[in-house]
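[Discussion] Sanity-checking designs against the backbone

I'm trying to build intuition for which residues belong where. Below is a structure token string of 376 positions. I'd appreciate it if someone posts a full sequence so I can compare it with mine line by line.
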């Protein structure tokens, strides 16, 4: 049946307010307007960021909202003026736009498009209206892509065509988790061969950092997590050693200092906590260590640390979706994946039907998963 130009009714998971579990509802998804694309989502991962949305700690989210931002799907229809994709194309929605026109997009040294949610609201489409209605109420978009809906509408700056051969229930990980972690090591830190790295937080993103450090030729890769169940997978993907801070009486940064002599060359914070960010910075080599912030701390929380940590030459930098300009990079990453250059599939601990999204979040909260893929 041709659905183009028509409202589609389908299932979506809605966060009605912060602190409440998701509920699966029937939503009406309006057709795409000019420069918009409607995508049938085939698979979506659950990222730590979606959990921050449920708890209310992620910045600039308006409720009720349909979260989800690590999806892959097929274009159902396109609005006027869309030239980058056509119905039937396999695509990945981009949680960080690449509009191609703004000051950042025209620079080569940043991927922070000025249309990102941190610069401009993405709770509604660019014309300030929603394409989602549930029980007569307007529902907000998340990062413009809301992949926890079987059909979703996004601006054409936030979608990219990928190789026809790509398995969508695997390559959805390129929409956020894998690209973020792998790029944090290769693009943001630019990890060098023979170096020492410490990764705080061994979830799907942290393990992707481990993979990036390994690919860059780091010789010592130390994984740190308070859940020791994460260590098996971390060692499988390249960690040379794993530490649980709870096993030590002294702070973990002191343990790392002693272990490495002068601190690690690169430390990555991939939890989303201020304490672990300070610990990661303090674990770095005094004179030339680089600390990369990947985790998203609670919105608006002030960071405080002894400025002498920086005075001697350490660097603290942020990494936004691994530093990739997403439209340019994601299709290439997917093609490299199809050539067998890396295996993010090892991150997938569960594949479940979308209807089990609440069970999936329960597994996340119990620390029993790495990446869960939900399929429609
Ligand atoms: P996750 O929940 O799968 O993993 C977090 C891990 O941290 C878990 O294994 C926890 O056990 C572990 N942890 C919790 N507390 C501590 C602690 N005190 N010390 C050590 N480890 C601890 O999340 P994820 O891997 O999907 O995401 C991780 C963070 O990265 C999260 O804050 C998310 O919002 C952020 C993120 N950032 C970007 C970006 O562009 N920078 C993109 C995607 C995700
Ligand atoms: Zn994410
Ligand atoms: Zn831009």
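Best answer:
Here's mine. Compare freely.
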């Amino acid at each position: 049946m041709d659905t183009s130009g028509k409202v589609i009714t389908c299932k979506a998971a809605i966060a009605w307010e912060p602190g409440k579990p998701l509920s699966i509802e029937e939503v009406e998804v309006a057709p795409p307007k000019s420069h918009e694309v409607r995508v049938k989502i085939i698979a979506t991962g659950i990222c730590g960021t979606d959990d921050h949305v449920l708890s209310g700690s992620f910045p600039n989210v308006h409720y009720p909202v349909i979260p989800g931002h690590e999806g892959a799907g097929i274009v159902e229809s396109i609005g006027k003026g869309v030239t980058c994709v056509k119905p039937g194309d396999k695509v990945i929605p981009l949680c960080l736009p690449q509009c191609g026109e703004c000051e950042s997009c025209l620079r080569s040294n940043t991927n922070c498009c000025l249309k990102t949610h941190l610069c401009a609201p993405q709770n509604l489409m660019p014309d300030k209206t929603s394409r989602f209605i549930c029980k007569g109420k307007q529902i907000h978009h998340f990062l413009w892509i809301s992949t926890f809906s079987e059909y979703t509408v996004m601006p054409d700056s936030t979608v990219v065509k990928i190789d026809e051969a790509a398995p969508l229930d695997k390559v959805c990980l390129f929409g956020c988790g894998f690209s973020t972690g792998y790029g944090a090591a290769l693009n943001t830190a630019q990890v060098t061969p023979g170096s020492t790295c410490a990764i705080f937080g061994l979830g799907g993103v942290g393990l992707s950092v481990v993979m990036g450090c390994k690919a860059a030729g780091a010789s010592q890769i130390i994984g740190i997590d308070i859940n020791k169940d994460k260590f098996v997978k971390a060692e499988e993907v390249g960690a040379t050693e794993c530490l649980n801070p709870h096993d030590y009486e002294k702070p973990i940064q002191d343990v790392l200092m002693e272990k490495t002599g002068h601190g690690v060359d690169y430390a990555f914070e991939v939890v989303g906590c201020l304490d672990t960010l300070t610990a990661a910075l303090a674990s770095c080599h005094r004179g030339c260590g680089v600390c990369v912030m990947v985790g998203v701390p609670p919105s608006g929380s002030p960071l405080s640390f002894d400025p002498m940590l920086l005075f001697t030459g350490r660097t603290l930098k942020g990494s936004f979706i691994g530093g990739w300009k997403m439209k340019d990079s994601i299709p290439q990453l997917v093609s490299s994946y199809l050539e067998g250059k890396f295996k993010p599939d090892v991150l997938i601990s569960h594949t479940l039907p979308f209807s089990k999204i609440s069970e999936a979040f329960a597994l996340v909260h119990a620390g029993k998963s790495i990446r869960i893929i939900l399929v429609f």
